[in-house]
Amino acid sequence: MYSWNSILQKFLSVSLFLSVSIFLCGYGYTGNLPQLGETTKTQEQPETQPSTEVQQAKPLPIIVPRASAGHKINNYTKYLTDIKEIDTLLREIKTILEEQKENKIQLFCAKVNVLNLYVDVLEEKYGEKPEKHYESYKQLIVLNKYLTEIVDYKRGIEASKETNKHTLEIKSEAEKYLKKKIEKTLIPINTVIEIIDETG
Description:
single chain; mainly alpha
């Protein structure tokens, strides 16, 4: 008669034998495996003929810098509009300065007085704003100062003529001084006109 130990040993040995047999004979999945590469194969792109026309690159959008979100940059546009209002006046004053005709002294003084009014308005509007750092603004302030000095000097010359104190020597010195003043004044007036031209 078999003992429990011998029965248990036989059962374990049979179980072990069956397990090893199943493992070694490949028992498990019995279906057909798919062909590798059929489903993962990349589809070939149809060959395209090179285009004879050269495609033009689209221009990149111009990025406008902003000081902060939602801040409209229209101050410079307003400033330019104000500056362009005196464009014709500046050109007329420049022509009179270059011609230096005695018969246009009164016309010159009148035009300078009009420019003084414009510059006063610009100083009120932009004197405490960032626009005061623009080159055109700074040159206008300098120009206004030079033109006012020329007007005052011309008026002084006219007054001396009326009192018969205008000798040839004084006249020669006055002309030299006036020529230097005009040369200095043409620099800022040309600069402002150039800036206006550049902005369109």
